[in-house]
Design brief:
By secondary structure, the chain is mainly beta.
Length: about 110
Amino acid sequence: NISLPVKRMHFCMLKIPITVDCEILEEKYSKGEKFRAVITGVAGKGGLIRPDKPFAPFYNIKMSLAGESASGREAPVYAKITKDHGDGEYEAYFTFIPREIRDFFSKLAEGDD
C-alpha cells in the first residue's frame, strides 16, 4: 500500500475578490465554453475559485484577469481544478502563472492595495 502525502494549501482570503474570465480547456485547446469567476483566496501555487457555473474537478481552465485587475496584466493563468468544496467554490492548482500575476496575487494576499 503506497500513497502520496496529501498536500494542503493554506489560502489567504482576499478582501476584494478578483474577477476573471475563464475558458474550459480540453488538452491545450479551448472548448469554446467561456464564463466568469471570482478568485476569493490565494496560496503559493493555487487559488479558491467561485465560477458562474459549476464544473468538475480535474478540468483544465485558462483565466484572464477582468475589470480593474486586468490593467497591464494581459497574460493568462492556467489552472487545474483539484477539489470541489461543495458550496460553489473550487480549489485550483496554478499550472502556469506569469510572474506579474503571481506578484499581484501575493501583494493582495499581504493586504496591500
